[in-house]
UniProtKB/TrEMBL annotation:
Primary site of residence: cytoplasm
EC numbers: 2.3.1.129
GO biological process, one term: lipid A biosynthetic process
Organism name: Bradyrhizobium oligotrophicum S58
Quaternary assembly: Homotrimer.
Protein name: Acyl-[acyl-carrier-protein]--UDP-N-acetylglucosamine O-acyltransferase
Top-rank taxon: Bacteria
Length: 269
């Protein structure tokens, strides 16, 4: 059965899963659903129409399900849905969605959110992400699986960050980042491929060679970018990662693509 500290306030209507521990001075709103075997250590506030899966660990002063920081919000009962197996360290905040964004903010499974990380309204965050200290998302951001966002980095609203990306610390990310990209700098620029991350995901030497060759042709070949895109399209069949990158670029809608900065040294690709 669940264990609720006598100093906690759990509103009527809230659902607390089997084996979940609600520690001292937590506040749980009436429209909150918490899965099994979660641990709310203390001083946690979960509000709004918020749903959490199983096995989440939530540290003090985390606030989940707060109203969007958006002037268009008029109190609509929009939602925040969080998966299972996530860790939320001290001071993390996540907001519900807005009407214009579809009314839903979603967080995948297995995420690790370090202290003071923030996810704004209408974001979609994938599985197994790591947000370092004070990593921040603006509204409507899309984050793929297995993304690492460095400390004090911020992602502009409507930006997409593809699967397997690594964002360095103290970056302002203003453009879409291709899957497996590595970005750095005050205004983030593409420095190469996240080779270390790709090796951890069991990319073979042959796969790395193919994707590196594709990357060099696309971003550092002769001619304008549109011509290079046309030239590398036949390479989509060589590796699933190449096809994924091309599909990601084709799917851009709101933000320009994050590109290498001319004159900046390029990391190993």
């Amino acid at each position: 059965m669940s264990k609720i500290d006598p100093t906690a306030r759990v509103e009527d209507g809230a659902v607390i899963g089997e084996g979940t521990v609600v520690g001292p001075y937590c506040i749980i709103g009436p429209n909150v659903v918490i899965g099994a075997n979660c641990k709310l250590i203390s001083h946690v506030q979960i509000m709004g129409h918020t749903t959490l899966g199983d096995d989440n660990v939530i540290s003090p002063f985390v606030v989940l399900g707060g109203a969007p920081q958006d002037l268009s919000y008029r109190g609509e009962p929009h939602r925040l849905v969080i998966g299972s197996g996530c860790t939320f360290r001290e001071g993390v905040t996540m907001n519900i969605g807005t009407t214009k964004g579809g009314g839903l903010t979603t967080i995948g499974n297995g995420g690790f959110f370090m202290n003071n990380a923030h996810v704004a309204h209408d974001c979609v965050v994938g599985d197994n992400v790591i947000f370092a200290t004070s990593a921040t998302l603006g509204g409507h951001v899309e984050i793929g699986d297995s993304v690492y966002i460095g400390g004090l980095s911020a992602v502009h609203q409507f930006t997409r960050i593809g699967h397997g990306v690594m964002v360095g610390g103290v970056c302002g990310v203003r453009g879409d980042v291709i899957p497996y990209g590595l970005v750095n700098g005050q205004y983030a620029a593409l420095e190469g491929l996240n080779v270390i991350g790709m090796k951890r995901r069991k990319f073979t030497r042959e796969r790395l060679t193919a994707v590196r060759a594709f990357y060099q042709k696309l971003f550092h070949g002769p001619g304008v970018f549109a011509d290079r895109m046309a030239a590398v399209r036949p390479l989509a069949g060589e590796d699933p990662a190449i096809a994924e990158i091309l599909a990601f670029i084709d799917g851009g809608r709101h933000r320009a693509l994050c590109l290498p900065e001319i004159g900046r040294p390029t990391a190993e690709v």
